[in-house]
Specification:
Length: 353
Amino acid sequence: MTNDKYVGMDVHSATTTVVVLNASGKSVSESTMETGPEQFRQFFKGMSGAVHVTFEQGIQAAWLYQMIRPLVAEVIVCNPRDNKLVQTGNKSDKIDAHKLATLLRMGELKPVYQGDARTRGLKEAVRSYSALAKDTGRVMNRIKAIYRGQGIQCEGTEVYRPQLRQQWAMKLADSNTRSRLELLYRELDCLSGLRKSARAELVKQVRRQPAYKILAQVPGLGRIRIAYIIAIVSTPFRFRTKRQFWPYCGLAVVTSSSSDYQVIEGKLHRSKKPIGTRGLNRNFNRDLKMVFKGAAQHSCRREPFKQYYDRLIANKMKPELARVTLARKIAAITLAVWKKGESFDADRMMQNA
C-alpha cells in the first residue's frame, strides 16, 4: 500500500540506528537514538500508516520484539546468516539499517521464531539448567586435565567422588597443583548443587505444559529431553512436515545434483545420474540435535526401537548412520504425535518403518 513504511533497525547495546523507507523504496527518515523502551515507544507512536519493522536476531531481540509488536503492523526478527546483502560492500550502522529496510520491503527476509509466552518460564528454566550443565562439564574436564598433565590415568568418574578425592589428590607431588585441584573440587560441588536445583525447577516447569503427557509416551524422551523440545520448538505447527523439522534439528541430508535433464532424440528427459549426498545440514539448533541423538543412543538398545535399529544394521548400514536414521525417526514421531495429540503406537510405527 502507498502509505506503508518499512523500518530497518541496526540495534546495539547503547544506540540504535533507524532507517525508514516508503512504499516506493525512498528513504524518508534516518535517525540514531538511545537503545531504550521509552525511546522506541515514542518513535513508533509518532509514525502513521502501516509500519513494518525488522532487526536482526541477537541478545536483545526477544524483549525488543515483545515491546514493538503491539505498536506496529508487522515485526520480523530476521536471521543474520541469511542476510548476504548486509554482509557485502561498505558497512556502517546507517548502511546496515538501510539494507535491512530494503530487504524487508522486497520480502526477502527469513524470520526467526520468537516463541510463545506460555513457554517463557520453561525457556528460562532450560537456559539455567543448560548453562549450569555446561559449566559443570568444563570444571570436570579441568580436574581430569590436571591428572592427565601429570601422566596419571583417570578414566571413569571415581576422580570426582568426594570420598575418594583425598586419595586421588595424594597422587600429585606438587602442593601448588593440589591447591588448584582443591579449588576446582569446591567449584564442582557448588555447581552440582545449583544444577540439582535448576533440574528440579526444570521438571516442575515442564510438567505444567499440556504437551508433556503426549511426548512422555515416546520412548527415549525423558523429562529433560521433553523440556528442551517444548522450550525450543514451542509449537509443532511451526513445521508443516517432518522434512521442515529435520533441518531445524540438524538431521536433514544435504543433497547435490547437476545437469538434472538431458535431451534425447529431441525430447527432454530427466537424467538418471544419482543425486550425491553431502552429509547433514550445518545450520541447526544444537541443543535439539543433542536431544534426538541422545534419544537414539538410548533407544537403540531398547524396544520398540531396537528392532528397527537392528534391521538397519542387518541391511549393512554403519552403526553411526543407523543411529542418525533412528534419531530422524524419533524426531518425526515426536512431531506427529505432538501435532495430532494422539498416543504413541509402537505397532503402527514398525509397520511404517
